[in-house]
Structures are given as C-alpha cells and as structure tokens.
Amino acid sequence: MTTTGSSTSLYALKLSDILFLSLAVWLISKLVSRLRQNLNLAPLKGPPRESLIFGVLKHVNQAPDSGAVYEEWSAKYGPVYQIPGVLGSKRVVLMDPKAVAHFYARETTTYVQTGMSKSFIKRMFGNGILVAEGDSHKRQRKALTPAFSNTAIRRLTAVFYDSAYKLKTMWDGMIESNPDGQVIDVQSWMNRVSLDSIGIAGFSHDFNSLAGEASSVSDLFDTFAGLKPPPKTLISKMLAPLTLIIFLLGTVFPIVLSLPTERSKLMKKLRADTTEIADVLLGKTRKEKELGLVDEKGDRSIVGLLIKAEDPNSALRLSKEEISAQMTTLLLAGYETTSISLTWALVELCLQPHIQAKLREELSRVSGDPTWDQLTSATDIPYLDAVVQETLRMHPPLGETVRVAATDDVVPLSSPLSLSSSSSSSTTTSSSQTSGVAIPKGTSITIPIRGINRSEAFWGEDAKSFRPERWLENGAGIPDAAKEVSGHRHLLTFVDGPRTCLGKGFALAEFKAVLSVLIRNYTFEFVMDGEDKVPPKIEVHRSILPRPKIEGQQGARVPLRVRRV
Ligand code: HEM
C-alpha cells in the first residue's frame, strides 16, 4: 500500500515537474525568440507602449477609425514604423507603397497567417484556401480559379439581376400600401440579395431568403450583427465583458480563443451549420451528376467545378475536407463583404443626395439593365463605376492585413527612412537612415488597408470625403502618390499578390448590377425627424466584419426611407 502510495506521489511529482519544466521551456523559448526578433529588428520609430499587456492594440481596436490612427502615426514616425503589441511583442506597420507591394507579393510564403488568424479561420471556414500556404495554396487557387473567369462571371450576371428583381418585387409590395415611402432596414435586404446570389451562382441552391425563408446561415449572421439576441449561458455572460481582452490575448496565445465566449460558441455553430449546408449541397450536386441531371459541360457553378476537381486522376484533386471548407469560405466571403459594400454605398448616397441624383440620371440614359460588358468597363457607365470604386476605397470590409514573417526578410522602401537611433542593420545607408528594413523571422506585420485607402498622403486633402469624381477625368483625379499603391485600381480593398480576392470580378459585377437596379427604381433618404433635419451619425457595428449602423439602432441596422422613383 505504502509503496503504491509513494510511487503514485512520486509519479505525480514527476508529472508536475514535467509540466512545470515544459511550461518553463516554452516560456523561455518564447522570450528568447522575442528577444532575438527585437534585437534583429531595425530600430524603427513608433508610438510608446500604452499598456504592459496590450501595447497599443486596445487603442487601435477601440478607435472609431483605426485607419486614421495608423495614418497619424505614419505622419509622425514615417511610412514604416513599429507599434507595441501584446506582452512586449512588437508589430511592424508598413505604409510605404514599395514595402507594401513587396509584402503582398510574398504572401503565403514569406508572410503567413498568424497563429490567431489560422485558429480563427480554421474554426470558421475550415481548412481551406484562406489558411493554405505555399504550394498547397497555389494548388487550391488553381483549382478554384476557372470558376471566377470572365466567361463564368458573364454567365452569372443574370443571377445578380434575378436577385435584384426579386428584391424589387418584395419592396414594391411594401411601398404600394405606403405611397409616401416605406422605412426599410436596407442592410438586412442587402444580406438577402448577397446570400441568394452566392447560393445560386455558387451551388445552384436557392436560399430563398428574399422571399423570407429562414436559413441557419442568415440566422447566425444576424446574431453576429446584433439583430437577434444570442442565447446566453451563465459562463458566456461572465466572459462577455472580456471579449476584446480575450481577442487581443489571442494574438499571442491563440488557445484563449477557445474559451466559451458567446462569440466563440457562435463561431463554432456557424462552422458546423455552414459545413452541413456545404455537405448537403455537395451531396445533391454529386447525385445530380450521377443521374446525368447536371449539364457537365455547361455547369460552371463553383460546386460544379469543385466536383470536377474531385476527379482522382486530376493533378488538382482537392480533399473532401478541402472541398467542404472551400464551399464554406465562398459562401461566407461572398455574403458578408458584398452586402456590407452595397449598404455603405446606400449610406453614402443618402449623405450626399446630389450624388444619388447624378447616378440616377446617368443610369436613366442606359437602355435596359447594363450588360456584363458595360458593368465591367470603367468608361461605359463611368459614374456608376466611380461610385462603386469610391465606396470600396472609403469602406474596405477588411480593414487591415496582419501576418507573421516565416523567414528573415528585408523589406525595400520607396525612399530612405529615418531610424530612431544609429542602426546595426546591414542595409543602413547612413548612421540614421535605411533603404530597407530588416524583418526577422517571427515578426508581426500590419498593413493598414483602410489607413492607406483613406490616407491624405496618397489621396490628397479630401481623402476622407466620399467624392466619386476623383475616379473620372481619365484617371486625372487619382493623385500620383496613390498610383504608387499596387492592388486593384490602386486600392488595397481586395489586397494584392497571391492572395488577391478570388471573387473580385464576381463582387464588382454583383455590386454594380444590384446598385443599378436599386437606384433606377428607388430614392433613398435617412429618416430624419424634427425641424433641423440633421442626418444621423453613422457608426460601425463590430460583427464578423465591421458593418455600418445608424446611431441609436440596436445592432447593425440601417433603416432608410425608400420611395419609388
Ligand atoms: C466587395 C466584396 C469583396 C471584398 C472587398 C473582398 C475582399 C477580399 C480580401 C481582402 C481578401 C483577402 C483575405 C486575406 O487576406 O486573408 C479576399 C479573399 C478571398 N475572397 Fe473576397 N472579397 C469580396 C467578395 C468576394 C466574393 C463575392 C467572393 C466569392 C464569391 C470572394 C472570394 C474570396 C476568396 C475565395 C478569397 C481567398 C483567396 C485566397 O486566399 O487565395 N470574395 N477577399
């Protein structure tokens, strides 16, 4: 008995020793690698640490315009600077166009998702293209690309118009009984247009959300957008006030993201539900294919192409898990981003009714619905193009890219950068200036997409104003400094390089088709009570991606008065 007891306690002691030693080794290795990074990193200027735990990240996350914060620091410390991150870590912020282009060109190889992003995306979207790196990313991208070719999108244009006209039927019914216009939460309707479009175009599946059919995808997104009260358990209630803290700590310790917060539980459910939908859709299409119900040659839906990629003899074969994750990714990527962009466009057009009128006037001169050729041209319906571009510049759904260096690198600069003290960097041109910034392996890098898109240094003094005219005049409206920024029409909204948005053509065609139907048929204005008629304040609601909301509304609601033209 005694022997057994002592051997148990000896075993327990050994186990605790091992645990303690492992923890100590892990902590020391983290500290050593952080020290190595900090020592090898060029002595960049940057704002002082505000908090020992969060650095300045809490300040950035809580700012009403995080882009403006990065822009202010860039004006003060130069276009490449460092900011204090969580628990003594440092992040390098790139706002120099040459450095940004260099960075995006090396996405998925030299620069990869952080542990937190990987954990977040895997939980939400599965192990698909968004987390793939290097050769695996190349392989998945090659398999998916044909689904987004010009020919494919041209054929999908009818789907976007179908959705827009279904919405019109519903709205006409609502407005009919209210000739002075109907107050409509346009954001929820933009969600429905986007969801039904991606369902049909991506999987030949009609979610029928425009006709009011409920689906778990829209239910979950609505919960994230604060439009439905989430189910609350005691533990998640207790963790709710800590959501931001847990999120920030997750940048260093991704494991804390697994804590049962309301958000993490919703994410888990979202993943489970979208995977279920993906599996059902996949099964249905496979069966149709077996029964010869799908025109194999003609089927260019995303699912059709994914199923073709399943061919065991194909070099581009994707695993079943990858197929399910790609479908989830496409469903979610095609739904949130486009819906947010359409909503922002309507908000901006209400803030400046003369721009709305000018757009309507241009569209009234187009006979019938614009064709795909007209939608994709920047010059056929130039003001529509300018309004869409300006919306994407001002309101990129993804505000920043955060990555970590997988290997040591040197980032080139457009012009020499002043360092905070004399540098030991090999690329130093003088004691206080450098032509390239040494980035040690493990360094976190931030590209402030929103900050660069709206920066006065690139876009001029009126950078923060919604002014579609800057896109006209044969490009003369785009300042030379902005032309230095690589990316779709000098914007980083779709990022750049190997991870450039695959659905860019899809999104632009859908955005323009839906907006043209809305503006030709309806006028939009804010609901303004009282004598003064001051437009309401527009706030940002933190959902999966930040969404616009009108001040005072619960959740991401954007009620507008809609009248028939
Ligand atoms: C206005 C609408 C859209 C915007 C602003 C947008 C923006 C973006 C951005 C910034 C990324 C890079 C994400 C990252 O760095 O991790 C991305 C990737 C992606 N987007 Fe979009 N997107 C839009 C619409 C769409 C649509 C409609 C689809 C599909 C139907 C789509 C499919 C994808 C895919 C598959 C990727 C992953 C690409 C890769 O990892 O290689 N997007 N998008």
From TrEMBL:
Pfam families: p450. GO terms for molecular function: heme binding; iron ion binding; monooxygenase activity; oxidoreductase activity, acting on paired donors, with incorporation or reduction of molecular oxygen. Pathway: Secondary metabolite biosynthesis; terpenoid biosynthesis. It comes from the Eukaryota. Keywords: Heme, Iron, Membrane, Metal-binding, Monooxygenase, Oxidoreductase, Transmembrane, Transmembrane helix. Its cofactor is heme. This is Cytochrome P450. It comes from Dendrothele bispora (strain CBS 962.96).
